């Protein structure tokens, strides 16, 4: 797939209305108070918004929040986002009472260069997730005949929705700075990495990462497996995994991947020892055993000390490291040792370090290593599909350079 896409700097937006797709799907306080508990995604959108406003565009921003499934749920309104965005920009963000209804149409029509309007939650309309052409056209029409569409929500580009792909049929479509950065850094690491390229893949399921493992075995020098999916590999090789996470249907795939690594001359590192526990609990009794010798009634919850040492050594002299998925149950302090060690090793290496969204991003942030990483992806699912070599509909829809 072609990742060389036009960006906001390749077009003239002066005096035009710009429909800007952002990712404002921010976590909110559970008490319904409308308090945003983490505004990172709003801050991430600022460079593109500020650039467009400075260039004399009138910005019509839109985003989804949560999963209202076509129902108007007041607790998923974009109003708190408009308030926070106003504070960060130092100017009023006009809030529409609907998405493509009378209020949004009137406010979009009256919008002047240098002003910004925020539409209500896109997923209040069922047409958004269905990529309904009529809804996509209604969104595009808000920007008028000479309007432009700017996509800057990387976390949603793997979904073909009305606001991520559909609108590109009606407006010239380019990327914002956030998507451009993702395409440059992850795309660059996949297409022409600084070697050796080390990929660290964790998380619970082989089934969800098999495409990524398969694709990375084509381009990486070393692939490291951790997390729950390591037990499927261990069982496939005849090991005993006790009550550990196991996808028995995927054992043959695990063996195929081991064989593929051998054929390609890629180092495939699997855990040699495991921290196992007698229950899935933060205070469970634990011990270190060889990975294929987990006793009945016990389950592997983290990689063991020898494995930690081997994985950290593999990272130390890497040119590029891509990490997606924790090494163990990092929500429990006792079983977060492997994940912490990998994060720390990444913070010390001179390599280009790319964290593929989701749990790994959360782990790196929680542990305070975020500022030591080259790039933390803003999209878990999108970065996974990107690394899998899949076409991302929201990127494919943009104009080529």
How would you summarize what this structure contains?
The chain is built from 13 helices and 17 strands. The protein has 401 residues and is α/β, with parallel strands linked by helices.
List keywords for this structure.
401 residues, alpha/beta, 6-stranded parallel β-sheet, 17 strands, 16% strand
The percent range for strand residues is 15-25%
Q: What's the pLDDT, averaged over the residues? A: 94
How many individual β-strands?
17
Low-confidence spans: none
* End-to-end gap: 13 Å
What Rg is obtained from the alpha carbons, in whole angstroms?
23 Å
In order across it, which strands form the biggest sheet? 3-4-2-1-5-6
Structural class: alpha/beta
**Oligomer description:** single chain
Give the topology string: H per helix, E per strand.
EHEHEHEHEEHEHEHEHEEEEEHEHEHEHH
The major pleated sheet works out as: 6 strands, parallel
Total of DSSP H or I helical runs spanning 4+ residues? 13
Which word captures the global form? elongated
Helix content: 25-40%
Explain what the structure shows.
By secondary structure, the chain is an alpha/beta fold. The chain contains 13 helices and 17 strands. It has helices at 40-54, 79-89, 102-110, 133-142, 177-191, 206-219, 230-236, 251-264, 305-316, 337-348, 358-366, 380-387, 393-396; strands at 17-21, 58-62, 93-95, 116-118, 148-151, 173-175, 197-201, 222-225, 240-241, 267-269, 273-277, 286-290, 293-294, 299-303, 320-324, 352-355, 375-376. It has a six-stranded parallel β-sheet, sandwiched between helices. Helix 6 (206-219) packs parallel to helix 8 and helix 9 (305-316) runs parallel beside helix 10 (337-348). The longest helix is centred in the N-terminal third of the chain and has 15 residues, at 40-54. It is elongated and about 70 Å long.
């Amino acid at each position: 797939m072609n990742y060389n896409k036009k960006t906001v700097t390749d077009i003239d937006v002066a005096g035009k209305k710009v429909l800007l797709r952002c990712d404002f799907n921010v976590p909110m306080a559970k008490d319904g108070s409308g308090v945003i508990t983490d505004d990172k995604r709003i801050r991430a959108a600022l460079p593109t918004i500020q650039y467009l406003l400075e260039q004399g565009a009138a910005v019509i921003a839109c985003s989804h929040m949560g999963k209202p499934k076509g129902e108007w749920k007041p607790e998923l309104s974009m109003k708190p986002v408009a308030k926070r965005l106003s504070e960060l920009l130092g100017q009023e963000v006009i809030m529409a009472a609907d998405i493509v209804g009378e209020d949004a149409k009137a406010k979009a029509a009256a919008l002047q260069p240098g002003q910004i309007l925020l539409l209500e939650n896109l997923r209040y309309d069922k047409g958004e997730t269905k990529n309904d052409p009529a809804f996509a056209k209604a969104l595009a029409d808000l920007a008028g005949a000479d309007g432009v569409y700017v996509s800057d929500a990387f976390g949603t580009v793997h979904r073909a929705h009305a606001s991520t792909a559909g609108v590109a049929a009606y407006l010239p479509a380019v990327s914002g700075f956030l998507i451009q950065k993702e395409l440059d850094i992850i795309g660059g690491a996949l297409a022409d990495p600084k070697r050796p390229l080390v990929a660290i893949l964790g998380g619970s399921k082989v089934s969800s990462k098999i495409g990524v493992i398969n694709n990375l075995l084509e381009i990486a020098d070393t692939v490291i497996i951790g997390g729950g999916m390591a037990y499927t590999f261990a069982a496939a090789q005849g090991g005993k995994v006790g009550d550990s996470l196991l996808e028995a249907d995927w054992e043959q795939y695990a063996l195929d991947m081991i064989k593929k690594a051998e054929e390609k001359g890629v180092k495939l590192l699997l855990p040699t020892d495991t921290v196992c526990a007698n229950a899935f609990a933060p205070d469970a009794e634990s011990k270190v055993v060889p990975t294929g010798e987990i006793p009945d009634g016990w389950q592997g919850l983290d990689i063991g000390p020898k494995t930690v040492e081997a994985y950290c050594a593999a990272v130390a002299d890497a040119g590029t490291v891509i990490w997606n998925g924790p090494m163990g149950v990092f929500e429990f302090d006792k079983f977060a040792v492997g994940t912490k060690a990998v994060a720390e090793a990444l913070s010390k290496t001179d390599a280009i370090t790319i964290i593929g969204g989701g749990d790994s991003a959360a782990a790196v942030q929680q542990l305070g290593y975020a500022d030591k990483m080259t790039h933390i992806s803003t999209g878990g699912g999108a970065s996974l599909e990107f690394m899998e070599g899949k076409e991302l509909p929201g990127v494919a829809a943009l104009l080529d350079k």
